[in-house]
Amino acid sequence: MAKKIYVTDEAKARLANVFKVTRMMVWKALNFESNSILARKIRYVALSQYGGVPNWKSAEMETTHEEAANTMTQTFGDHVKLVVKKGSGIVTVLVDDEVERERQVESIPEFMELQSEVSRMALSL
């Protein structure tokens, strides 16, 4: 798998603005298509300041399904869980078994973005 750093579209635009480069240069840096000094700086700032998620590093995740409760639970590390109530789209984020937040997720990309955020959260705890 090729190395990549995932950031939001807003973060990509900010990186292009900060470094005064095109979005293509940001894309090349984040997809390791370029390894210039500038590309390395873009990657560093993406990871350290814009919530970048590297595809080669994530919190350990385990997924379980509980048919009786009609839920799917994803456990990230020792402290963070993401619980999906199947069929409703309601997703609850738990930190140390306390509700951090709950929200309605409408699409798979939205859910994947939340997974990435929860994974970053787990890495920081």
SSE run = EHHHEEEEEEH
The share of residues in helices is: 25-40%
Number of strands: 7
Principal-axes geometry comes out as elongated
Strand order of the largest sheet: 3-4-5-6-7
Mean pLDDT: 90
Largest sheet: 5 strands, antiparallel
- Low-pLDDT stretches are none
The rounded distance between the terminal residues' Cα atoms is: 27 Å
- Give the helix/strand class: alpha+beta
Strand content: 25-35%
The helix tally amounts to 4
- Spatial extent as radius of gyration: 17 Å
Can you offer a commentary on this structure?
The two termini are 27 Å apart. The chain has 125 residues and is α+β, with helices and mostly antiparallel strands. It is elongated, with a radius of gyration of 17 Å. The model has no long low-confidence stretch (mean pLDDT 90). Helices cover 39% and strands 28% of the residues. The strands form 2 sheets. Strands 3-4-5-6-7 form a 5-stranded antiparallel sheet. A two-stranded antiparallel ribbon has the order 1-2.
Topology at a glance:
Blueprint: E1 5-6, H1 9-19, H2 23-30, H3 37-49, E2 53-54, E3 61-66, E4 71-76, E5 80-85, E6 90-95, E7 98-104, H4 108-124
Antiparallel strand pairs: 1-2, 3-4, 4-5, 5-6, 6-7
Helix pairs in contact: 1-2, 1-3, 2-3
List keywords for this structure.
125 residues, alpha+beta, 5-stranded antiparallel β-sheet, two-stranded antiparallel ribbon
